[in-house]
Amino acid sequence: MRRAARVAGVLAFAAALAAPLSAAAAAPARNATAVGVAPRGGHGAAEVRVTFTSPPTFSARADRGGRRLLVDVPHAGVSGAPPSTTRKVGVVAGVLVQSFRSSQSGATTRVVVSLSEESQHAVRVEGNDLVIAVRPGKAGPIVDAGRSRARAETPAEAAVERGRVTDVRFEHGSVEQRVVVELSGAPRQLRTDRKGRSVLLLEEAELPEALVRALDVGAFGGDVSRVSSYVTRRGVVIEVEHSDAVTSRIGRRGRALVWSFHRPGALPSSATGVARDGGAARRTRTVHVEPGVDEGSRSPSGAPVESAADEAAGAFGPVVVGQARFTGRRIDLDLKDADIHNVLRLLADVGRVNIVTADNVSGSVTIRMRNVPWDQALDIVLQAKSLGMVRQGNMIRVAPQSDLEKEREMAIARRKQELELAPLETRIIPVSYARASDIQQRARDLLSPRGTIAVDDRTNVLIVRDVTGNLNQIEELTRSLDTQTPQVLVEARIVEATSRYLREVGIQWGGDTTFSGATGNPTGLAFPNSVGVVGGASDDSTPTAGLSPFTNRVATPNFAVNLPAAVGTGAGGAIGLSFGSIDNTINLAVRLSAAESTGMLRIVSSPRILTLDNREARISQGTLIPFSQVSAQGVQTTFQEAKLQLLVRPHVTADGSVSMHVKINRDEPDFNQTSARGDPTILKREAETDLLVMDGHTAVIGGIFSRNTGRNLDQVPFFGDIPLIGLLFQRRRSSDTRSELVIFLTPRIVNRAEALGR
């Protein structure tokens, strides 16, 4: 097991950002009060802990192949340590701390940890402590605000939730300006600060298309002038352009990131590095990457970079302008009257490509660009000088555009000459499923001026004579077009359902009364001496069955109320009652009738037909109904169709669905409703539509539902309105008829595997 003494650490505190010498240095927001080092977990692992008076913020990077770690703490000083002092710290648990050195000339404290071998590093903040953990092993990336995965001390910290940006907005204040980024999730963050521009990268995050925009906020009059949000291959980039005099910090507010910009000293020190969320202080880690880095600093790919900010900005992803896609590292250029050869050499060095220029390339370039990919800068410089380039791998040849166009014209001329001199061949191409004459029309466009094409109708083959290259193209075209035509089986199902309900209740009653001397009950008056009262609501068609046990029909029933229900054979029932006196002077007859009927009818029609793709098909079944027409020429008989018909034209799409134009008819004669001459009417049901259905699926293309309800009341005036007694003077009828028509359609591709190749 490695001894911890192999990880000899040297801690040095030095000023990194110098304030102007003529002005008094601002008081630091925090001071380092204690430094300690201790082993952690064995195997030579150690932990350096620096205690500050308030929660620190930091930026960190590795140097010298992982043997040195530099951590900068902005707005921090060293309490009680005189400038340029070196002292022995001592040995703690077998880990040697050789010396302590500090020199403070600004508002930034730098912690430098030197190691005797290549090691892995992790930096974090715990309360007011800055903790630097090191352990022997292959050098890994520094934990830089979530940029590296090396800091996963626990599985919960290692799990990173893929985030989604839901809103990006700008909030203006008198002291500070804020950029609020609403998030769903917790994406890893990487932030870089430069003079005039700050960039925040949310790794592997998603951004809605509506939020890909640039907000011009300069009209508010603050230090922030522009806020841009866009997507690169690494994630979502939030870019803020601001004045050089501001500083920034990031905090959490609920599920949102609050990125604030303010001038140094404008906010109280207690607000630095802490964000408020519902009244509870939540500690925030802010990463500052300064423009300058030590000599030998390299990007993750091993290439030297000018600054960590340039490295992060260059990795944020491609830029798309029109149809061109630029993926090079982003750079800044500020040149005046620079020779074009030197500019091209600079771009070749940045892009790691080889550029060869022609002898007639000359001139100077004046250019100022900020945050553009190097390949886009190269393209713009060439356009400005009327130059063009030919790229082969990492080799780029630059020449005037006119020269390159002449070279292309000469190459085209050479190809034409080669084509005219090439020998002709004859090839017979068989056609199996399509017609050779149809493919001939499409293959003519692929012939050269010397080529010919003919068709043999008997064998259905193409006879083509041309150069070898064109013959191969025509043969490939024939193979692509000569496939089985899809066959579609279309099945329609027409379902009709009808239900009927009818109820009728009626009453008939009447009689006769006689008061006269002949019957022995005169009125006893001189006038009227005799009185006769007889019901008069009967006629020859009045139903009287049931009023007499001796005869089925009573000639003179003498009904006073004649409101019977429609009863008879197979419908309803009736009962008759008759009452009379001994001398037949008073007779009363009553007949009660009632009828109720319920019925349901269901008709299913299922026509089906098989057809080829894009071919119209029709299937029908029905009758011809004759109609007589009387005219000057005499009586003429015409026929009207009443039929069930399916008319369809299917088209099979590339994904295996079926697009169809469908027309379905179902006509039938109705002999219940006839004309004056007894000719029946025709009930028509028709649906016509265009639809897209997946193979084998069933679609409901239409339906009709209708309902007819009715209530009828026939009564004798005045008497029918009397409660209860009015029932003796009424006939009631109620009806409810419902009908529903539904049409289903199911297409099936019969030869799917052969026609679609799946």
Short description:
The chain is mainly beta and 758 residues long.
Radius of gyration: 50 Å
What amount of the residues lies in strands? over 45%
Uncertain spans, ≥5 residues at pLDDT below 50?
1-26, 81-106, 141-161, 269-317
Q: What is the tally of beta strands?
A: 45
Q: Decide which structural class fits the backbone.
A: mainly beta
- Average pLDDT, rounded to a whole number, is 78
Question: How many helices does DSSP assign?
Answer: 8
Gap between N and C termini: 61 Å
The coarse silhouette is elongated
Describe the structure.
The structure is a single chain. By secondary structure, this protein is mainly beta. Helices cover 11% and strands 51% of the residues. Strands 34, 35, 36, 37, 38, 39, 44 and 45 form an eight-stranded antiparallel sheet that branches. Strands 1, 4, 5, 7, 8, 9 and 10 form a seven-stranded mixed sheet that branches.
